Amino acid sequence: MVFDIAGTTVKDDNEVAKAFQNALKTCGFFLPLEKINPFMGYEKHFAIKEILKEAGEAEAYTETVVKEIHQAFVNDLKVFYSEPETTIPLPNVESTMQTLHDLGIIVAINTGFSRDIADVIVKQLQWFERGLVDYMIASDEVAKGRPYPDMIHSLMKQAGIDDPSLVAKAGDTEVDINEGKNAGCKYVIGVSTGTFTTEELRAYDPTHIISDIAEVIDIIKA
Fold first, then answer.
1. How far is the CA of 177 from the CAs of 67, 86, 173, in angstroms?
2. For residues 57 and 178, what is the distance between their CA atoms, to the nearest angstrom?
3. What are the angstrom distances between the C-alpha of 169 and each of 8, 69, 207?
4. What H or E segment, with its residue span, contains residue 25?
5. Helix, strand, coil percentages for the chain (3-state, nearest 5)
6. Is the pTM of this model over 0.90?
7. pLDDT by residue (tens digit) across 87-136?
8. Positive or negative CA dihedral for 149, 152, 158, 163?
9. Please, what is the Cα angle at 5 between 135 and 39, to 5 degrees?
């Protein structure tokens, strides 16, 4: 079982998009949140380039500017997620992870964040130390981030799984759904607790859409 992080397993009241917005402002760009949200879940350097194109600034950025924006984004979120009051698992996430383990199912998490941000989050939540998560991978640890299947395929290799029909993916964005499809996962589960609404998720044809992560158990056991 592969879970996304922000908006799927960890509470996100649009803080990730706000961090993007603030990072863009540091380099003189502005985009409203509704223009940023569609790029949530993507590898962040790619997302920054696409956001700048959306802002009509495609000719204005260089790789140096993209790196500066990304670093500002990373710095903002590392501070944000280092506080226990702002790093909160969504309802039923931890009990669902434990139930999956009780059923003999490997639990992994992946993310469009870079590894340094992901490490801050899981350190705060102590998911590895508590035995709730077995594997984690971030978008900067593979050749291509979402919607490419590289992260899921890498997790499968780490877990010793060859058959993608033994894998399920759950996430709250369009790119999570397409990642799961491209990886050949048996179940591709849209979660309406994050960036995309149920109606928005439905447009990308996941196998399931849920509003409570605990529903994953019934899907897996069916």
1. 27, 26, 7
2. 27
3. 11, 29, 10
4. helix 15-26
5. 50, 10, 40
6. yes
7. 999 999 999 999 999 999 999 999 999 999 999 999 999 999 999 999 99
8. negative
9. 125
